[in-house]
Write a structure and sequence with these properties.
By secondary structure, the chain is an alpha+beta fold. The chain folds into two domains: 83 residues, no CATH class; 109 residues, Jelly Rolls. It has three helices and 13 strands. Strands 6-13-8-11 form a four-stranded antiparallel beta sheet, with no helix packed on it. The protein has a four-stranded antiparallel beta sheet with strand order 7-12-9-10, with no helix packed on it.
């Protein structure tokens, strides 16, 4: 038997949304860009999204059924989240959240191979590294190897063979680091107690899952 409290007549001027498409969306999450005028439009029409009559759970001859009370509560929570998003985005799209700079110094290297490690990217950020430099103040290393590390292993970024002592090697480019990755620099051919320097520079972007 049809529930009379959920039964509504069709109207020619009403846009109806199938509740199943909201409760089980067919689209993946996406990052979108809106102009100020578009945000103004969306904020104002969001009020219609709170109306029970906007949603249909079943179509029938001459009438339709609105969602159940439980489904309607779920939809209202989704609408509230949309309204909160439209009031302001905490992330700048592909923009700078903060500058990322880190300088490392080790005054007493081990003999042979020594490695300097930079900080790992936290879960809520993505880093874009634009420059990396390294220097052994005392010895000409046989190799200075710049690499990025992750759960998948090490990936080379740049190699500098036989740089002169107290001479800075410099890499410049665009390197994207996701959460859990880090930059490390391997100095091969160190003598005991060499002074090692390294630095990175770039910027941070907020990551919203």
């Amino acid at each position: 038997m049809t529930n009379p409290t959920r039964r509504r007549r069709f109207r020619y001027d009403r846009i109806m949304i199938e509740s199943a498409r909201i409760l089980s969306p067919q689209f993946d999450d996406a990052v979108l860009y809106f102009t100020g005028a578009q945000i103004e439009l969306l904020r104002n029409v969001a009020g219609y999204l709170r109306r029970l009559e906007t949603y249909t759970a079943e179509y029938h001859q001459g009438y339709y059924l609105t969602p159940t009370a439980e489904d309607y509560d779920t939809i209202l929570a989704i609408v509230a989240n949309l309204e909160e998003t439209l009031m302001g985005n905490p992330n700048t799209l592909f923009g700078i959240k903060d500058v990322q700079r880190e300088l490392l110094y080790k005054a007493n290297s081990v003999a042979g191979e020594d490695t300097l490690w930079f900080a790992s990217v936290p879960e809520d950020e993505v880093w874009r590294i634009e420059s990396i430099h390294a220097r052994n103040a005392d010895t000409s290393n046989s190799l200075i190897h710049i690499r990025r590390s992750s759960d998948l292993g090490y990936f080379p970024v740049a190699d500098f063979e036989n740089p002169a002592a107290d001479t800075r090697v410099f890499w410049k480019g665009m390197l994207t680091l996701e959460a859990g990755t880090a930059i490390s620099i391997v100095f091969s051919g160190c003598t005991l107690n060499d002074a090692l320097w390294a630095g990175i520079q770039g910027y941070k972007m907020a990551h919203t899952p």
